[in-house]
């Protein structure tokens, strides 16, 4: 089951600069009083809405899959969607 969320969240992220270009990697997600540890990275792709540019991440945290968006202008993380196994 998936749920559209669209609310700002707190994310702890790091940078991997061993690649040709530095890559941001989210590791922890705080949402609605719960902390989720990223267990597996999925797709990462850039997206544009109008003049705004985002980095979109799909990642797994235990039994849920999260779709996060990083606004490159404000550096605010937004939880776009959650996919539950149950």
Largest sheet entry:
5 strands, antiparallel
What is the N-to-C order of secondary-structure elements (H for helix, E for strand)?
A: EEEEEEEE
Spatial order of strands in the largest sheet: 1-8-7-6-5
Radius of gyration, taken over Cα atoms and rounded to an integer in Å: 13 Å
**Terminal CA distance:** 7 Å
Please tell me the overall pLDDT: 92
Shape: globular
Explained architecture:
It is a single chain. With 86 residues, the chain is mainly beta. It has one domain (2-84). Helices cover 0% and strands 73% of the residues. It contains no helices and eight strands. It has strands at residues 2-8, 10-16, 23-31, 34-37, 40-49, 52-61, 64-71, 77-84. The chain has a five-stranded antiparallel beta sheet, with no helix packed on it. Strands 2-3-4 form a three-stranded antiparallel beta sheet, with no helix packed on it. A hairpin with a 2-residue loop joins strand 3 (23-31) and strand 4. The termini are close together.
């Amino acid at each position: 089951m998936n749920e559209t969320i669209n609310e700002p969240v707190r994310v702890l992220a790091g940078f991997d600069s061993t690649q040709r270009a530095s890559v941001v990697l989210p590791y922890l997600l705080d949402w609605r009083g719960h902390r989720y540890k990223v267990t597996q990275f999925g797709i990462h792709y850039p997206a544009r809405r109008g003049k705004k540019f985002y980095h979109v991440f799909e990642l797994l945290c235990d039994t849920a899959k999260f779709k996060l968006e990083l606004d490159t202008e404000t550096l605010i993380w937004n939880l776009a969607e959650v996919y539950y196994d149950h």
